[in-house]
Amino acid sequence: MARLDESGEDPLKKITSEEMKLLTALRSKGIEPKLKTDAKWHLASVFGEEDEEPYGIPAHKRGSDLHHYPKFSIFFGEENRGEVTWDTFRYEVVAAITDEIFGEEQILLGIRRSLKGCAGDKLRRLGPHVKLGEVLEKLESAYGTVETKESIMKRFYTCVQKDNETVESFASRLEELFDKAVQLDALKRADTITLKQVLHSGLKKELKHMSVYQCDKIAAYDEFKRELRRMEADLKGESSDEKKPCKPAVHTEKREKTETSEFIDLVKQLNERMDILEKGRGPQQFEPHFERHPSGRGPPRGGWPGGGRGAARGRGDNNGRGYYRPQRTTGTNTFAPTCLLCNKKGHIQKNCPIILDQLVCVRCKEKGHFMRNCPN
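Given the sequence above, the corresponding structure tokens read:
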């Protein structure tokens, strides 16, 4: 099957005998001339090595056969709508242009079928006779990045891993910033060492310290990221083992239950008795307060309590006579004893009239006194 050029003639007829000898010599030396796809196909047909046509489309029909066009992802130009972002959609279009499999009209047809919503309206306003370069320039001005080299590089070098973020998610964010920096000519695509160092410096503290040796040893970025993911999985496994709760004892003996219940009952009884005793106690007794002499020597100011010889020798006011200064106002029964049985002042428990009324003398069989105080 002979291929025809743009003028409709067979290009093989245009090759002279001298050119054929030159091509044969180059082929014998293993040198492949840099020709377009059509010229390569014709050259292969000369030497009897005709390849299959890509996608079954002849080269002279690639720009005109619109039944075959590239299928791009759906792009709306709106947030959270469509299959891909603008960067991914642009990559698909540029890759189709670089492959040179489809012509410009076929790529434009694929773009028209893929743009929806706001992006489709922008293409419609350009008119039906728009060129491929004009379409890409229009879409790039609307959806392309507006950041500068300085802002991208600042975000790239200050990117850190979040608390609940995995290594793969953090690396994906970092790679996206790296790609934008490459597009702005701030970095080179082959500069993966810088990407690896920034990835290591932005890791969490524990994982960063553990991977210092691997960062120095491993040169390839993807291999280093794989090692980080393995270390992250080991850390998660250790943390899950530590948080695993202990199983409580389900089977207990009846004897232990009975002893525990008896102990609880005893504690309750003791608490009840303590409450009864606290309610039965009288108000707290306060001891008298005496002020020391200002000099720090001798008896308190006003003499010793109770007067006497110590009080007479005290150095105080009122011509050497001591005085007592209480902390609060005192009454007639302030220092009187309090009975712990009836909670009344003026007597103690052994002289309480309640007990005396119930006492019976062993000797005379009368109430109100003990045998040692029996008048008989």
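Confidence is low (pLDDT under 50) at residues 49-63, 310-317. Try to locate this feature in the token string yourself.
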